[in-house]
Write a structure and sequence with these properties.
With about 170 residues, the protein is of the alpha/beta class. It has six helices and four strands, in the order E-H-E-H-E-H-E-H-H-H. The longest helix has 19 residues.
C-alpha cells in the first residue's frame, strides 16, 4: 500500500519583495534552529527579506506578532516554536492558546505561517524541524508567503481582514 502523498503549492512570486518577521521561541533551541534555517531559506528563495526576534516561549509568540503588526511594517510573520507534551496539562494550555491567538491575528488580516510544533516527544520534534526532512519551518514560511500573495492579489492597501471595516463603522 502506498503512503500518503502531500501536495505542495508552487512558491509564489512577487513584483515587490516581501519583508517577513520570524518570531521564534527557542526553548528547545536545537529544534528551533533547524526551523529557523528552513524558514529563512524559503523566504530568501522567494526573494524576500526577514528579521528575527526571540521570545521566551510559545505563549509569547502571538503577542510579539501583535506588537510588530501595530508598530512595524512587515508583510507577514512566521511563528516558530516547539511544545513537547509533559506530565501536566500545561501542554494543552500552551498548544491551544498559542494556536488560537495566532488564528485570531490571522483573522484580523495578518499573514501568519504557524510553525509552532506540538508533539508528543523530542524525536517527533527532531524529524519535523529538520530542514532536510519535514522542514516545518520552511512550511510555515511558505504559508505566510502564500497569504501575502493572496492579500496582494485581492486586497487594497490597508483592507485585508475585517478590522478596518469594524473601525470605520465605529467612526461613522
Amino acid at each position: 500500500m502506498a503512503g500518503a502523498s502531500h501536495y505542495t503549492l508552487e512558491r509564489p512570486t512577487f513584483d515587490k519583495p516581501v519583508k517577513i518577521l520570524i518570531v521564534v521561541a527557542p526553548y528547545y533551541k536545537d529544534i528551533t534552529d533547524g526551523m529557523v534555517a528552513g524558514a529563512k531559506a524559503e523566504i530568501e528563495a522567494a526573494g524576500g527579506t526577514w528579521e528575527l526576534v526571540e521570545v521566551p516561549g510559545a505563549l509569547e509568540v502571538p503577542t510579539a506578532v501583535g506588537i510588530a503588526a501595530r508598530m512595524k511594517d512587515f508583510d507577514g510573520y512566521v511563528a516558530l516554536g516547539c511544545v513537547i507534551r509533559g506530565e501536566t496539562t500545561h501542554y494543552d494550555t500552551v498548544c491551544n492558546d498559542s494556536s488560537r491567538a495566532l488564528t485570531l491575528l490571522g483573522l484580523q488580516g495578518h499573514c501568519i505561517g504557524n510553525g509552532i510544533l506540538t508533539v508528543e516527544n523530542y524525536e517527533q520534534a527532531a524529524v519535523r524541524s529538520d530542514p532536510e526532512g519535514q522542514n516545518k519551518g520552511g512550511g510555515a514560511a511558505a504559508a505566510a508567503l502564500h497569504l501575502i500573495d493572496l492579500g496582494r492579489k485581492w486586497g487594497r492597501a490597508g483592507s485585508i481582514g475585517f478590522t478596518n471595516d469594524i473601525l470605520m463603522a465605529r467612526e461613522g
